[in-house]
Protein backbone atom coordinates (compact mmCIF):
# COMPACT_ATOMS: atom_id res chain seq x y z
CA UNK A 1 0.00 0.00 0.00
CA UNK A 2 1.36 3.39 -0.75
CA UNK A 3 0.97 7.10 -0.90
CA UNK A 4 1.51 8.28 -4.46
CA UNK A 5 3.11 5.04 -5.69
CA UNK A 6 3.97 2.26 -3.26
CA UNK A 7 3.70 -1.33 -2.26
CA UNK A 8 2.10 -3.97 -0.07
CA UNK A 9 4.52 -6.86 0.09
CA UNK A 10 4.80 -10.23 1.83
CA UNK A 11 8.53 -10.93 1.72
CA UNK A 12 9.00 -14.14 3.78
CA UNK A 13 11.89 -12.58 5.69
CA UNK A 14 13.89 -9.36 5.43
CA UNK A 15 16.83 -10.60 7.51
CA UNK A 16 18.77 -11.81 4.48
CA UNK A 17 17.50 -9.11 2.13
CA UNK A 18 18.34 -5.87 3.94
CA UNK A 19 20.76 -4.37 1.42
CA UNK A 20 18.61 -5.41 -1.54
CA UNK A 21 15.47 -4.08 0.14
CA UNK A 22 16.96 -0.74 1.14
CA UNK A 23 18.42 0.00 -2.29
CA UNK A 24 14.99 -0.25 -3.92
CA UNK A 25 13.05 1.99 -1.52
CA UNK A 26 11.63 5.12 -3.14
CA UNK A 27 7.98 5.01 -2.06
CA UNK A 28 6.10 7.24 0.35
CA UNK A 29 4.45 4.43 2.33
CA UNK A 30 5.46 0.77 2.37
CA UNK A 31 3.57 -2.03 4.13
CA UNK A 32 5.30 -5.37 4.67
CA UNK A 33 4.06 -8.64 6.16
CA UNK A 34 6.13 -11.64 7.27
CA UNK A 35 9.20 -9.50 7.91
CA UNK A 36 10.89 -12.12 10.14
CA UNK A 37 12.59 -9.24 11.94
CA UNK A 38 13.65 -9.25 15.59
CA UNK A 39 15.08 -6.83 18.15
CA UNK A 40 18.61 -7.49 16.91
CA UNK A 41 17.88 -5.93 13.52
CA UNK A 42 17.49 -2.15 13.59
CA UNK A 43 15.17 -0.40 11.14
CA UNK A 44 18.03 1.74 9.82
CA UNK A 45 19.35 -1.40 8.11
CA UNK A 46 16.30 -1.14 5.85
CA UNK A 47 15.38 2.56 5.68
CA UNK A 48 17.22 5.85 5.95
CA UNK A 49 16.10 8.84 8.03
CA UNK A 50 13.50 9.89 5.45
CA UNK A 51 11.18 7.28 6.95
CA UNK A 52 9.34 6.69 10.18
CA UNK A 53 9.29 2.93 10.64
CA UNK A 54 6.54 1.24 12.66
CA UNK A 55 7.13 -2.42 13.48
CA UNK A 56 5.46 -5.31 15.26
CA UNK A 57 7.93 -8.19 15.31
CA UNK A 58 6.73 -11.64 16.23
CA UNK A 59 9.22 -11.60 19.10
CA UNK A 60 7.24 -8.75 20.69
CA UNK A 61 4.09 -10.88 20.95
CA UNK A 62 3.15 -14.12 22.65
CA UNK A 63 4.10 -15.97 19.46
CA UNK A 64 7.80 -15.31 20.05
CA UNK A 65 8.61 -19.02 20.29
CA UNK A 66 7.98 -19.35 16.55
CA UNK A 67 10.15 -17.81 13.88
CA UNK A 68 8.81 -15.72 11.03
CA UNK A 69 5.83 -13.41 11.02
CA UNK A 70 5.90 -9.74 11.88
CA UNK A 71 4.62 -6.63 10.11
CA UNK A 72 6.14 -3.27 9.21
CA UNK A 73 4.95 0.09 7.92
CA UNK A 74 7.43 2.71 6.70
CA UNK A 75 6.06 6.22 6.11
CA UNK A 76 8.05 9.19 4.88
CA UNK A 77 8.53 11.78 7.61
CA UNK A 78 7.10 14.48 5.36
CA UNK A 79 3.67 12.89 5.88
CA UNK A 80 1.71 13.39 9.08
CA UNK A 81 1.28 10.01 10.80
CA UNK A 82 1.23 8.48 14.27
CA UNK A 83 0.93 4.99 15.68
CA UNK A 84 -2.24 4.06 17.56
CA UNK A 85 -2.25 1.76 20.58
CA UNK A 86 -4.80 -1.03 20.89
CA UNK A 87 -4.49 -2.32 24.48
CA UNK A 88 -5.02 -5.99 25.22
CA UNK A 89 -4.83 -7.14 21.60
CA UNK A 90 -1.84 -9.40 20.98
CA UNK A 91 -1.73 -9.60 17.20
CA UNK A 92 0.82 -9.10 14.46
CA UNK A 93 -0.75 -5.81 13.45
CA UNK A 94 0.00 -2.09 13.31
CA UNK A 95 -2.59 0.69 13.49
CA UNK A 96 -1.66 4.16 12.18
CA UNK A 97 -3.48 7.48 11.84
CA UNK A 98 -2.70 9.46 8.67
CA UNK A 99 -3.98 13.01 8.29
CA UNK A 100 -5.84 13.77 5.07
CA UNK A 101 -6.95 17.00 3.47
CA UNK A 102 -9.79 19.08 4.96
CA UNK A 103 -9.00 17.94 8.53
CA UNK A 104 -9.96 14.34 7.79
CA UNK A 105 -8.11 11.27 9.02
CA UNK A 106 -7.47 7.82 7.61
CA UNK A 107 -7.13 4.68 9.72
CA UNK A 108 -4.39 2.48 8.25
CA UNK A 109 -3.92 -1.07 9.52
CA UNK A 110 -1.46 -3.74 8.38
CA UNK A 111 -1.94 -7.25 9.74
CA UNK A 112 -0.60 -10.78 9.39
CA UNK A 113 -2.58 -13.83 10.49
CA UNK A 114 -0.44 -16.99 10.77
CA UNK A 115 -1.82 -20.07 8.99
CA UNK A 116 -4.55 -21.93 10.88
CA UNK A 117 -5.32 -18.98 13.16
CA UNK A 118 -8.45 -19.60 15.24
CA UNK A 119 -11.69 -17.83 14.36
CA UNK A 120 -11.56 -16.04 17.74
CA UNK A 121 -8.32 -14.33 16.69
CA UNK A 122 -10.04 -12.82 13.66
CA UNK A 123 -13.12 -11.82 15.66
CA UNK A 124 -10.99 -9.98 18.25
CA UNK A 125 -9.29 -8.13 15.41
CA UNK A 126 -12.62 -7.12 13.87
CA UNK A 127 -14.03 -5.96 17.22
CA UNK A 128 -11.15 -3.55 17.82
CA UNK A 129 -12.38 -1.35 14.97
CA UNK A 130 -15.41 -0.32 16.98
CA UNK A 131 -13.12 2.06 18.85
CA UNK A 132 -12.01 3.82 15.67
CA UNK A 133 -15.33 4.74 14.09
CA UNK A 134 -14.43 8.44 14.13
CA UNK A 135 -12.00 7.99 11.21
CA UNK A 136 -13.20 9.25 7.83
CA UNK A 137 -11.43 6.55 5.83
CA UNK A 138 -10.33 3.02 6.67
CA UNK A 139 -7.65 1.02 4.87
CA UNK A 140 -6.75 -2.50 6.03
CA UNK A 141 -4.18 -4.52 4.17
CA UNK A 142 -2.26 -7.67 4.93
CA UNK A 143 -1.99 -11.43 4.87
CA UNK A 144 -5.26 -12.95 6.10
CA UNK A 145 -4.27 -16.53 5.15
CA UNK A 146 -7.80 -17.42 4.08
CA UNK A 147 -8.76 -19.62 1.14
CA UNK A 148 -10.71 -16.99 -0.78
CA UNK A 149 -11.11 -17.79 -4.47
CA UNK A 150 -13.47 -15.15 -5.80
CA UNK A 151 -15.91 -13.50 -3.37
CA UNK A 152 -17.43 -14.02 0.06
CA UNK A 153 -20.79 -15.37 -1.05
CA UNK A 154 -21.92 -18.88 -0.12
CA UNK A 155 -18.69 -19.56 1.74
CA UNK A 156 -18.66 -22.35 4.33
CA UNK A 157 -15.62 -21.09 6.24
CA UNK A 158 -16.82 -19.44 9.51
CA UNK A 159 -13.85 -17.05 9.44
CA UNK A 160 -14.78 -15.83 5.98
CA UNK A 161 -18.35 -15.38 7.21
CA UNK A 162 -17.10 -13.26 10.12
CA UNK A 163 -14.97 -11.26 7.70
CA UNK A 164 -17.97 -10.69 5.44
CA UNK A 165 -20.05 -9.46 8.39
CA UNK A 166 -17.25 -7.13 9.46
CA UNK A 167 -17.01 -5.68 5.96
CA UNK A 168 -20.75 -5.08 5.82
CA UNK A 169 -20.79 -3.30 9.19
CA UNK A 170 -18.02 -0.90 8.20
CA UNK A 171 -19.03 -0.64 4.53
CA UNK A 172 -15.72 -2.06 3.31
CA UNK A 173 -14.89 -3.44 -0.10
CA UNK A 174 -12.16 -5.94 -1.01
CA UNK A 175 -10.05 -4.55 -3.87
CA UNK A 176 -7.26 -7.05 -4.42
CA UNK A 177 -8.03 -8.88 -7.65
CA UNK A 178 -4.55 -10.35 -8.17
CA UNK A 179 -4.69 -14.13 -7.68
CA UNK A 180 -1.65 -16.02 -6.39
CA UNK A 181 -0.18 -19.23 -7.82
CA UNK A 182 -3.04 -21.26 -6.30
CA UNK A 183 -5.72 -18.92 -7.65
CA UNK A 184 -6.45 -17.58 -4.16
CA UNK A 185 -6.40 -14.21 -2.43
CA UNK A 186 -4.29 -14.53 0.72
CA UNK A 187 -3.55 -10.80 0.85
CA UNK A 188 -6.57 -8.52 1.13
CA UNK A 189 -7.08 -4.79 0.58
CA UNK A 190 -10.13 -3.69 2.58
CA UNK A 191 -11.33 -0.09 2.48
CA UNK A 192 -14.37 2.19 2.54
CA UNK A 193 -12.83 4.43 -0.12
CA UNK A 194 -15.10 4.88 -3.12
CA UNK A 195 -14.57 2.43 -5.98
CA UNK A 196 -13.64 5.28 -8.33
CA UNK A 197 -10.91 6.52 -5.98
CA UNK A 198 -8.83 3.36 -5.61
CA UNK A 199 -6.73 1.29 -7.97
CA UNK A 200 -4.99 -1.99 -7.05
CA UNK A 201 -2.63 -3.76 -9.40
CA UNK A 202 0.20 -6.25 -9.58
CA UNK A 203 3.44 -4.38 -8.96
CA UNK A 204 5.79 -4.40 -11.93
CA UNK A 205 8.76 -3.57 -9.68
CA UNK A 206 8.63 -5.65 -6.46
CA UNK A 207 11.02 -4.58 -3.72
CA UNK A 208 12.51 -8.07 -3.39
CA UNK A 209 12.13 -11.32 -5.38
CA UNK A 210 8.43 -12.09 -5.39
CA UNK A 211 6.82 -14.90 -3.40
CA UNK A 212 4.45 -16.72 -5.76
CA UNK A 213 1.94 -17.13 -2.93
CA UNK A 214 1.93 -13.38 -2.23
CA UNK A 215 2.07 -11.19 -5.37
CA UNK A 216 3.39 -7.69 -4.66
CA UNK A 217 0.57 -5.14 -4.86
CA UNK A 218 0.55 -1.51 -5.90
CA UNK A 219 -2.29 0.61 -4.47
CA UNK A 220 -3.25 4.14 -5.49
CA UNK A 221 -5.97 6.29 -3.95
CA UNK A 222 -7.39 9.56 -5.20
CA UNK A 223 -7.16 11.88 -2.23
CA UNK A 224 -4.42 14.06 -0.77
CA UNK A 225 -2.89 13.50 2.67
CA UNK A 226 -1.58 16.39 4.76
CA UNK A 227 2.01 16.82 3.67
CA UNK A 228 4.33 18.66 6.00
CA UNK A 229 6.11 20.46 3.18
CA UNK A 230 2.89 21.10 1.22
CA UNK A 231 3.80 18.88 -1.71
CA UNK A 232 0.90 16.95 -3.27
CA UNK A 233 1.14 13.25 -2.58
CA UNK A 234 -1.60 10.79 -3.50
CA UNK A 235 -2.74 7.72 -1.60
TrEMBL record:
Gene3D superfamilies: Endonuclease/exonuclease/phosphatase (3.60.10.10). GO terms for biological process: cell adhesion involved in heart morphogenesis; larval heart development. It comes from the Eukaryota. GO terms for cellular component: extracellular matrix. This is Endonuclease/exonuclease/phosphatase domain-containing protein. It comes from Araneus ventricosus (Orbweaver spider).
Amino acid sequence: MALEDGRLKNVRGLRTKTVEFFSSVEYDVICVTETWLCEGIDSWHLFDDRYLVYRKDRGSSSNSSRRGGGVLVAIKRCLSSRKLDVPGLDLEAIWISVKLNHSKKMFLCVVHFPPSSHVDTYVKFFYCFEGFEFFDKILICGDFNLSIYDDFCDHNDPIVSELSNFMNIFNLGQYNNILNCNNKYLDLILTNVDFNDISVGHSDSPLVPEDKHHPALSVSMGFVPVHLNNRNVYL
